[in-house]
Amino acid sequence: MAASYNAKEEDGHLSGSSGLGGTAIRTRKPDNTAFKQQRLPAWQPILTAGTVLPAFFVIGLIFIPIGIGLFVTSNNIKEIEIEYTGTETSSPCFNCSHNFSWNSTTPCKCVLSFFLDQPFESNVFMYYGLSNFYQNHRRYVKSRDDSQLNGDLNSLKDPSKECEPYRFNEKPIAPCGAIANSMFNDTLDLFYIDPNGTKNPIPLIKKGIAWWTDKHVKFRNPAGSNLTAVFRDTAKPVNWLKPVYELDTDSENNGFINEDFIVWMRTAALPTFRKLYRIIQKKNNMTPTLPRGNYTLEVTYNYPVRSFEGRKRMILSTISWMGGKNPFLGIAYITVGSICFFLGVVLLFIHHKYGNRNNSSDISN
Amino acid sequence: MHIYKADQEPAVRSLGPENLLLKGATLKNTKKINGVAVYTGMETKMALNYQGKSQKRSAVEKSINAFLLVYLCILISKAVVCTTLKYVWQSKDGQDEPWYNQKTQKEKDTNMYVKMFTDFLSFMVLFNFIIPVSMYVTVEMQKFLGSFFITWDKDFFDPEIQEGALVNTSDLNEELGQVEYVFTDKTGTLTQNNMEFIECCIDGFQYRHRDELDGFTVTDGPVSKLQQKAGLEKEELFLRALCLCHTVQVKEDGAEETPGDQVDGVDGMFPQPEEERCFIASSPDEIALVKGAMRYGFTFLGLESKNMKIKNRQNDIEEYKLLHVLNFDPVRRRMSVIVQTKSGETLLFCKGADSSIFPRVKPEEVERIRLHVERNATEGYRTLCVAFKQLSAEEYAVADTGLREARLALQDREDKLMAIYNQVETGMSLIGATAVEDRLQEEAAETMEALQGAGIKVWVLTGDKMETAKSTCYACRLFQRGTELLELTVRTLEDGRTKREDKLLELLRDYHRRAVQDAPPVKAGVTRSWSTANQEYGFIIDGATLSLLMNPPRDADACLYRNLFLQICQNSTAVLCCRMAPLQKAQIVKMVKNSKGSPITLSIGDGANDVSMILEAHVGIGVKGKEGRQAVRNSDYAIPKLKHLKKLLLAHGHLYYVRIAHLVQYFFYKNLCFILPQFLYQFFCGYSQQPLYDAAYLTMYNICFTSMPILAYSLLEQHMAIEVLLDNATLYRQIAKNAMLRWRPFLYWTVLGIFQGLMFFFGVRFLFSNPALQDNGQVFGNWSYGTIVFTVLVFTVTLKLALDTRHWTWINHFVIWGSLAFYVFFSFFWGGIIWPFLKQQRLYFVFANMLSSVSAWLVIIILILLSLLPELLLVVLRKPRGPHSRQMKRRLPSSGTSTIFMLSQTASTHSFSWSD
User: Fold this and answer.
1) Which residues, numbered 81 to 110 in chain A, qualify as contacts with chain B under a Cβ-Cβ cut-off of 8 Å?
2) Per the residue annotation, which of B185, B203, B464, B694 is the catalytic one?
3) Cβ atoms of A292 and A117 closer than 8 Å
């Protein structure tokens, strides 16, 4: 095919100047379509000062109120942080942290008192915070077996290799991996001290602290009526005090679907982080959830952080529609809005001045 | 076939180039021939031509390679920094292996240095996305698909040959927007190669053909004029010479009667419409001459078994026996025939260039005709002189044997033939001269002017004589009235007193002083001043002088000569090189190509003699002319006419360049701000190579989320309408010298990428100082962090492209908004299912949870806006230059005498920036 085509052309070459040689030439006129001629109808926006400047003003006018709203909202959130690592000798938890040993059978307890000078009105959320704890370390992040946590029986017996070195302890470990092994296991209890000196325990709700989808879909106990029987052939994680089926007495919150466990399994983004621990529900509209006054925090100190210079803290916080207390968004919105507005003014001024000069020069031309 | 028959004396015949049948030749007048195959296999023309082609690389590719090197350095330094910091960080107590994150036994056993090396490699893998591998795929696709627009352009369609443009390579599309030098052939490219007999001069008397229609009738105007001027004898001799001295063949239409019968049949009756007669010849000049003679009453009827038949004015058939054809060759620049009349006289007719004929005729005859020849040449006609000589029987016998012997010679046949030719073609008498016009191509002048307006230097390389070429240049407005011509030809060198070499140097120095040193320094590219105060120079050089210049007798001077020559050429607006051999054309192109700054060259030509220069230049353009397909096949692009070059360069070239330059910069940018947050994240995750984004996002980013918008942009973008580009040739200067891929714009894009990467990462970092971002107090983890950053990233880079898009067709809308929609859809989908084949369900409902958080929305919006703010700010700041450019444009029309720039004012509806 190609050869005959070439031959034809060569023929044209030899009798090149005949002028009439092309009776058999196919018509190869290109299609006259808008696409092929690059003439598709098109919107041709031209960004000019005229269109951009109003945008600056609009951005400024929208962002500044949003920013103020965010800032005020964030400022209205009440938050109190209590550090209980026990690094200083004055700290009540100093003894617990100092004498920590993995083998101790009796839990070490310490009690911290604090004073709330403002009442917390709405639902109060109790967090524990860790610092210098690299939950986002690659070796750590990947050290889990999601199919085991989803109730897969094969994975229960033979956990993923990613779980090494927390995979087998003679028997397969359930839940395997570094994340599960290092689950936060301090117990925090809160007491309100009445003005008359009585110690009232504050009810802490442990449900609703994990993502709904995690609790109901992603994490599932292996099939079986009795958790103890299901986990019979597995070992507890090395650093755990009790096996996974004894995390809670409530069967809806036991085993892999224990919410404290699920919260821990969602690895934090940064080495300083907080995780939701308990929720203190508002009782009624009459009394604040946490009235002004003296409180004590009782810590069962099980979780060592001093070896890697970590810090532990307990945080009580109210929550708004934008989440916890964080002035960053408000400040950012106010700043960006102001910058836009300011730029708008400056540029308008420059543009106006320049435009005038330009017009006059045009006229002189 | 019986070569040796018993009863026959073996005849010895010569076989030469004239007996060669090229591939595709058609057999006629005979049923069969016997032949021998020569030049087969690797020696075929095709194979030989194929070897000559070398890989052409565009300037854009070179820029890409340079940028790639920079990014490679960034990649390596990132990996080195991270590896170093990792070991510094780990040296602190408890950091390397805290109780909660023990190493496996294997990791503990690994050698420290091996670990360091694997860490380095892991970082390389983590950051490798900064090298835009997908860019190569996209660039190739853009080039391949983009080149279709050239083939599809109906403006390139020529109804005459029923063909449009042809793209032989798609690698050089963008190079069309970077051309600095155009080397054009004259015949067939600038001119139509459609020869028309204009006038002749017989014995010093001028005959101008008055009117075509009644030209050929015997009793009409021109002939009566003829009789008033030259003797009938001379006139008829001249016309017979035109009729006989050629290698033209008559093309017969198969079923018709032979020409002879025709003439017999109509003898004495109304003359046949002989204009319909078709001639075939290797050179269009010959056809023009034969047709010209026909108009004056002498018709060439054809060649039949060595007998040439012509019909004279009395409609009588004259027969001549063709004894010898002394072929045309470019060295002799003439051809001759030896014929025998019925009466037995042997005549030699010779036609050729004046320079080759004049020395061979009687000097007193020359003077009368030289005047006409030179006048015709200055008017741009191609001139030929015709001479004849009567050979006596002895003379012929000598010539005959000489020719036969030479043709049979097996060694040095060429030289021997040449010697015989020269010997025979002497002592002739000049009978006249002809002038044939080679019309300019349509819109040749406009095209040339547009190219010059675009800052492109046009060089005309031709084999024609200087006067002819010069007048063509004037006609094409390459030279204007004000242009000062600097000539460097054999004639200017011929100065009795000094040697040619000395004179050459002297002239070069003189021209150099005038054109280079005295002229104000010409600033590069876009900034070329348009004030008319500048003297424009045109430079003319001929082949002989050029070869002297390239190979001077003293080798030491070669460099000096060449430098002077190049500098003069660079400061001239147009350069004309005449009397060039094909190889010299390529030499010139090569010299310019390799000169300082390595400018981008483009060669355009239509003939086989242009192939070498087409192959040599960065971009080779073939014109689908009358001289065959050689040029078209060896070219990178083929267009039907010269006028199409304007759109090819100014519109297609410009757009392709802008598209691909933007494509390249955008790719580097989007990968930089993609991977920078991942790099920064290492500082917060203990340098552990923890990826910020999920693996699906990492792979899909370049393949799905951000690839289509830029591909659509790079195919469809028209930052200015095509009409505007065509009307304002000066716009071409804006992108000259690879303006969009130089280090400054590259730095701008890189800084933008870094700025945005910092924004993405730290914006979310500050948000995550309290990870409780949902209104139910629940917290976000590291995958939410990555997903927020990634969402901001995808939206920002896509919107950045949307900001840059000036030409929103429905495809752009579809692709840009479609990509974003696809990203959202994919994220929901990817996070909505527990994927059985995944080991970790990292993103399970992460995206949906992210969208349920108001804070995440707010941070995404503000980060996108903040990242695009510099871009918006630049629009405003760049704007004040806009009016400036309008002023510039307004001044332009004063520079040219043409109206082409006048149109631009009304046609340009766009405002665009003029960078200065």
Assistant:
1) none
2) B185
3) yes
